[in-house]
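Worked Example 4.2. Consider the chain below.
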Amino acid sequence: MSDRFEISPESLRAASRGMRRCAEDFAAAVERLRGRVLGAGSPWGGDEFGTLFGTAYTGCTELGLRALDHLAGQLGDVAEALGRMGANTQGTDEANAAGFRRLEGGVR
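Applying the procedure from the previous section yields the following structure tokens:
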């Protein structure tokens, strides 16, 4: 096990782009699922049992789709946070480098 930890602004930006693609792909898959599930109509029939099943199925489906929509949003939020981390890391690196240059200039 390594006792080093390294990050770079570019690796964070790359992770942000990758996570953004995942979030977009996931959201598109949820939309395709929504179209298939909700576009199927009500094949269980209109009798008492079919109506009961249909009501439960519809409620569960809507709840599940809302949860998947929320997950897609959370993936997008992670992508944004990784991008901000990359920008913050770069800003901190640049500020630290400038501070060391000032110290080095004062020592001579």
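Residues 9-100 form a domain with the Helix Hairpins fold (CATH 1.10.287). The chain is about 85% helix and 0% strand. Compare this with Example 4.1 before moving on.
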